[in-house]
Amino acid sequence: MKTNKVLSAVLIVLAALALASCTGKKFHVSGVITDAKDSLLYFENMSLNGPVTVDSVKLDKDGSFSFDGKAPDAPEYYRLRIARQIINIAVDSTENISVKASYPTMSAQYEVKGSDDCSKMKELAQMQLGLQASINAIQQNPNLSYDQVDAAIQQTLASYKDKVKRQYIFTAPMKAYAYFALFQTVNVGNQTVLIFDPRSKKEDVQVFAAVATSWDTYYPKSERGANLHNIALQGMKNVRIIQAEQAQGQIDASKVQTTGVLEIALPDREGNIRRLTQLKGKVVMLDFHMFAAKGSTERIMHLRDLYNKYHAQGFEIYQVSLDTDEHFWKESVAALPWICVHDSDGPNSQFASQYNVQTVPTFFLIDRNNVLQKRDVQVKDLDAEIKSLLAK
């Protein structure tokens, strides 16, 4: 009798678990990736803190796979990944999404069914690849000056953003693909940057605000919606600050026309304000650096070699530190012979923003007339470039 009671209890528990399993809403992602035998396919959730592995499978010869997950209350983002080849997936509820691709071209060429969001994201991903190819071609054009390269890239980006805004974002800002479009990136000079800049560009901040407002309405308790809302608010605040500075004349356009560079005026180790434009007549390396970053010591040694080699001929280094710890910076530059200044705004430096510095270290070469000549990514032989500018 006791055995029967135990058995009955076990059966009741199993039945309850089975019922819970049946009623729990799930989404399903399956498909085939050919030419990937023995490759490890990852199914990753693209959380706000980065990719998180949900599941993985070692592919057989036929390349079939299948993943399941709990249906989200608001759009959620996943990706299928083999090495660096990625297919982005958006899940809105209980979709049954099918993917067909071939390795190693799965990022650029794949079929997706069962989700309009995923189809639109595929279009955006392919457009993004085309944008990157256009930017690469501009950067590799030896007949363009630094200013011409920058102008051409900005024009290309503007055209891309206009199309994406009109065809993908403003038409349905509540959709998963509209959110996805906001966070697309592109590589400009070995620096990965957001195509839509929510930090300082008024037009781009407005795009983030449009999607944030829509998500506030459709998904009022979602984590991603709250994150969008915060990004838009911070962007608006930044834009107001920039506009106020422009109104006060802190960003003087006439200086750009006269000198060819945007002025930088920051304190050195002793508190003396050092101006970039005061170095007219010298060949200058404008260098944005963080002494706390990995590899700083080796890089400083290389700069010291350059300085020792060319300083007597008219070469100078104007180094802007974005370190947050000012005391650490002062100790780090105590023995350096070139001009070292510190921006207390650190990574939020307005000067770094004006020069479109997305990562550090980044440097620029400026000729004797205070005209900006090249950015680091355009320099293949630094010694040869410095010698050339010194000879002019």
From TrEMBL:
Keywords: Signal. Gene3D superfamilies: Glutaredoxin (3.40.30.10). Residues 27-116 form the DUF4369 domain. CDD domains: TlpA_like_family. Residues 263-374 form the Alkyl hydroperoxide reductase subunit C/ Thiol specific antioxidant domain. It comes from the Bacteria. Residues 1-20 form the signal peptide. It holds the Pfam family AhpC-TSA. This is Redoxin domain-containing protein. The lineage of its organism: Bacteria, Pseudomonadati, Bacteroidota, Bacteroidia, Bacteroidales.
